[in-house]
Amino acid sequence: MAGGPPAGARRVNLGEGGELRVEVGPDQEGVGVRLLSGAAEAFGAELAEGQRVALRPGQQAAFFTFFGAQLEVEGAPEVAYEADETPMVSYANAHAVLEARRREAKARGRPGPRAMAVGPTDVGKSTLLRILTNYAVRRGWAPLSVDLDVGQGSLTAPGCVAAAPAERVNAPWVPPAEAGGEAGEASSAPLAFWYGHTSLGENPELFRRLVSRLGAVLGPGPRGAAGDGAGAGAGGAGGRGGDPSGVFINTGGWTEGQGYGLLKDVVEALGVDVLLVVGQERLFSRLSAELSGAHVEVVKLAKSGGVTERDPARRKADRERRVHEYFSGAGDELSPVAQSVPIDDVQVFRVGGGPKAPASALPIGATSVSDPLRVARVAPSRDLTHSLLAVSCAEGPEDVLSSNVAGFIHVNEVDLAKKVIRYTAPCPGPLPGKILLAGSIKSMAT
């Protein structure tokens, strides 16, 4: 393209295997990137030549090229730099292996690969799966995305175990309304089960129960399909559990102690046959040794240098952003509504038996007993103010643990004098269910 860059823009020439990393500040606007020539992609989504992609405030993006490209950066991002060392080639190799497995599964009428990314917090697990999912979609597949990172939530609001088919490329620059779903993650409403907390340590038994429930919905994976065609018609979110497109599973960053045990439980419950270990040699070595006879391939992948480590305040801010996006959309293109419901028209429950009494408060020889799966009725009070509540599809309290949720509301006020709950909903109309589930998640984002 002849001539120099326009005012306020600069051009970047990337060689083979080069990457441009851009970070937009939380208060910055007007930052965009345009592909002038060559071929480039962001998180596995291709850029068209001449296309300008707008980046939102607080967004990070990495533009990679296998063969070379010229890019133009408009505006003044907080950070923009070139990187020659990236793990993208190893990610492409992982895609090639999974692609071969999908093709074999399709030929034999069996479920596709179930790949799970594991590793500590902030090593790029969700970014890796986003890239691999986009590569699969570009090849014509529609893999199922499973999100077990209850602290952040990529498919729906935080605090859930969720799954949704990825039927279109998840480009970081596509407005959610055009992508057909939240942040372009999925074109179908996710199947979500309410955990209700942002840490697995709050109720690990409930997490195990929900993952097992999701595993029952998915049906047997490649390891559980005996013989050609076995399991290919198994259930799933929309009947996708046995699809040759396979499943991608994102996890949180708890990899030590009880967290390590939970990872192994997930491998078994969801029929995982490929473990992608990101950024931790010790975890890779341990999993390789302990799963060597379980027909699970353990693959070690490097952490990208562009991954930003987040402190607790940043993680909380990201969680608030996800709640805001659920109700208002990433670009505030949605219109949440304020509504109210009589207290007597709904029932509020919480799963868990409450905190255990300290040993010092018990008689000698006694142990504290708490049922982590007890479904307890909660009397509406002002304590629910600012809480995120899930609207359950359960017909009664006995069905809560096995039922998915239809969506979420944010409690603005509990008016005991008028006996009403005032709340924000993502859309107008009556609540799709009468059973509301509370947890420990509160938010000021709406």
Your description of this structure?
This protein has 7 helices and 23 strands. By secondary structure, the protein is α+β, with helices and mostly antiparallel strands. A hairpin with a 2-residue loop joins strand 4 (41-42) and strand 5 (45-46). The protein is globular and about 70 Å long.
Q: What proportion strand?
A: 25-35%
Strand order of the largest sheet: 13-12-11-14-10-15-16
Total helices: the number is 7
CATH superfamily of the largest domain: P-loop containing nucleotide triphosphate hydrolases
Question: TL;DR?
Answer:
This protein has 446 residues and is α+β, with helices and mostly antiparallel strands. The protein has three domains: 75 residues, Sandwich (Jelly Rolls); 214 residues, Rossmann fold (3-Layer(aba) Sandwich), CATH 3.40.50; 92 residues, Elongation Factor Tu (Ef-tu), domain 3. The protein contains seven helices and 23 strands.
